Amino acid sequence: MTPTPEEPGRRERKRRQTLEHLARTAAKLFESLSYEAVTMERIAEEADVAKRTLYNHFSTKEAILAYWIDAELKRDLAGLQGRIARCTTFRARIECVLHASAGWCEQHPQHLMAYLRHRLLSVGAPGPQGTRPDGSDIALAWEQLIAAGQQSGELRSEAPAEQLATWFHHLYLGALLRWLNTPGLSLEGEFRAITELFVEGAASK
């Protein structure tokens, strides 16, 4: 039987629904029990799926955590679009995103170290279909903001926006690591520092 054109779309929607169901189920367990206490077997049981189904979609607990955090970031970024559009400079736009990110991270510090470990170890490796190999939708946000800054003449255009976004994303991850490992450090302050470093280095001369 020849597949109809709609079938791949339905399969993809079902796959995404399964990913989201598994991630939401895991997130509830992470929040109620702690990340360390939750096992893949418990996630499969709570989600009412076979362990094989869970492993077909996520190879590790860290991958589920990363998918959930990335989905949270994507939702928050969508809600920021109006505020970002009202910003008139590249610095103001990227500071808007970083401010929102700091707020979320400060509410979920217990999950961030495992998330960062997974992201840093999987740099360049393909993630679930439809995701970026260098991390999350926030990495795509850096690229879009940098491209807009290049178009406005605020940032130099010699390097591709994707390359500059990768460099900024590494600064972002480094700031998070410093904050997690240094008691009393201000995450907002770390983000201001990397913004200053990046803008001064990438500014159009």
- Count up the helices: 9
CATH architecture of the largest domain: Orthogonal Bundle
How many domains? The number is 2
Q: Tell me the number of strands.
A: 0
* Low-confidence runs of at least 5 consecutive residues: 128-135
Radius of gyration: 19 Å
Task: Give the structural class.
Answer: mainly alpha
CATH fold type of the largest domain: Tetracycline Repressor, domain 2
InterPro entries: DNA-bd_HTH_TetR-type_CS, Homeodomain-like_sf, HTH-type_TetR-like_transc_reg, HTH_TetR, Tet_transcr_reg_TetR-rel_C_sf
Protein name: TetR/AcrR family transcriptional regulator
Keywords: DNA-binding, Repressor, Transcription, Transcription regulation
DNA-binding region: 39-58
Description:
With 205 residues, this protein is mainly α. It folds into two domains: 1-58, Homeodomain-like (Arc Repressor Mutant, subunit A, Orthogonal Bundle); 62-202, Tetracycline Repressor, domain 2, CATH 1.10.357.10. Helices cover 74% and strands 0% of the residues. Helix 2 crosses helix 3 (51-57). It starts with 5 loop residues before the first helix and ends with a helix. Keywords: DNA-binding, Repressor, Transcription, Transcription regulation. Pfam families: TetR_N (PF00440).
What attributes characterize this protein structure?
205 residues; mainly alpha; Arc Repressor Mutant, subunit A; Tetracycline Repressor, domain 2; 2 domains; 9 helices; 0% strand; globular; transcription regulation; HTH_TetR
